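I am still getting used to backbone structure tokens and would like to learn alongside you. Would you supply a protein for us yourself, any chain you care to pick? Start from the sequence, derive the backbone structure tokens from it, and show both lines together. Go ahead whenever you are ready, and we will take it from there.
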Amino acid sequence: METAASWKLENRSANFGGVAIQGPRVAELFHALFGDDVDLPQRNRIVDLPFDGTSVSVARTGYTGEDGIEVFFSATDAVRFWNAALEKGKPLGIKPCGLGARDTLRLEMCYPLNGSDLSPQRNPIEAGLGFFVDLAKSKFIGRDALLQTKESGPREKLVSFRMKEKGPPPRPHYSVFENGERIGEVTSGTLSPSLNWGVGMAYVSASHAKIGGQIDIEIRERKFPATIEKKPFYKKP
């Protein structure tokens, strides 16, 4: 009989690679890579599929606002799969890009990111994610604190904002002002590649978190006007 002492935990991250493929034609590329008779996995599911004499894991996941797949494979097969994806994707208009593209695209959709807009210091109600929390359940870790926040209202709320003028893009930790009063701090900000405009998200005092509210973002000791907007910034045509 095995005991706990006989188990060994090993970090094998360096043995694997991954590619995220996102876009409206991802289903076509999936079939080009794996065959017309192979079904796409359902959203948030993962399947193992044969590929060019080896096996890869394909997940119907992504964080850009588009449909997508993420493919995981042995590190020794990384170049082979990368080249195949680019070759098969040529007729579909595929383009390689870095991880920074994921951050700008998810921000256009106002998807909060852990470590930026979400953290151990922020609760789901402040982040506008209260619909993920079932307070009808009688017992779970954090329920009392969440219930108190729900009943009394959050002190701050996560809002999305759009700059009113062309200028330097907003960045995390920039201060947010209204009528000269500091009301919060930017958590994510960028120049939107789809809109060609500065956008971001920030935690601000709940009393100032109204759509249409006029605010200022302090960038390099200068204040630039912005407007609190309804989510998301980008809407598919």
The radius of gyration is 22 Å. Residues 78-89 form the longest helix (12 residues). Helices lie at 26-34, 78-89, 99-108, 143-152. The first strand starts at residue 16 and ends at 22.
